[in-house]
Fold this protein.
Amino acid sequence: MDLRSVAKVVGIVALCVAASASAVGLAGAQPATPTISAGPLAAAPTASPSPSADHSPSPNATAGASPTDAAAAVAPATPDPASSPDWGVVAGPDWVVTNPEPLPPCALGEVATPLSGQSAWALTLVDTTYTVGSGYVPDDLVSAGAAGLSNYQYVRSVMIGDLRNMVGAASAAGAPLGIASSYRSYDTQVWTFWYWVNMLGYDYALKSSARAGHSEHQLGLAIDFESAGGPDPWTYYDFARQTAAGAWLKANAWQYGFIMSYPLGSVDKTCYGYEPWHYRYVGVAEAAAVRASGLTLREWLWMHQPYPEPDSPGPVFVPGPTP
Ligand SMILES: [Zn+2]
């Protein structure tokens, strides 16, 4: 199998992350490659980079984004991890960088993500280490039908207005959008991840599917887009290059508050392979700031996580599962 074929296989795998348990026929899929000590936490989705993403780091990115969206509404002065589980969004005219620590490696872990409150949605970080746990369920899920998309897909209501506008703009541009997968519960993600472990083996699954608790889909803020009426986006070699919908999203989604979480060539920073169909909603102001920074979303979110006070215990890392 040549490299292109391998890439194709990996790309298909990635879909897994996107594909819902039902879509991939998880029924009957049993964990064949055990070893994930799925405690109270679970797994999550995927990551991927995009060719055009400019990942040049610029720590103090303050993108002239006007904080007019809901994400910029709440701005706690000094977040205290120990006493406030729901800090809201730390945002303002100049996005405040609160975390001076370097981006951690993509280690497997089960660390409770600090900004897990429902109102802190724009800055909630989930990756291979940080998790929202098994009990996290968005409190404002609504049908994507409210935005002109499938009535059978669910997303957080905070994005509906921008999503509706984006769907309309894409359609007007000749690139109508559809949804392949959006909100996925913790339990659905458990099956989704193990399905891919069965299909591809544990190591490959880790690069294309999030362990339960670690998926942006569980946040209700991630959408795997497809062309309206088209095939699953991961069946393309490169959804962003081969479809009008994928190309339009790559160029314009940020204007509606959506960022491609896992762009091409950024697996060392995002922890997942290229997923040109997976977008995370962060709000219009933050999306503009993320884009202007040239950073991947994980890097951006990491920089904006609350930083523990010197005497606070800080996050506790629990040994991750052994592959
Ligand atoms: Zn996805």
In short: Residues 3-24+37-303 form a domain with the Muramoyl-pentapeptide Carboxypeptidase; domain 2 fold (CATH 3.30.1380.10).
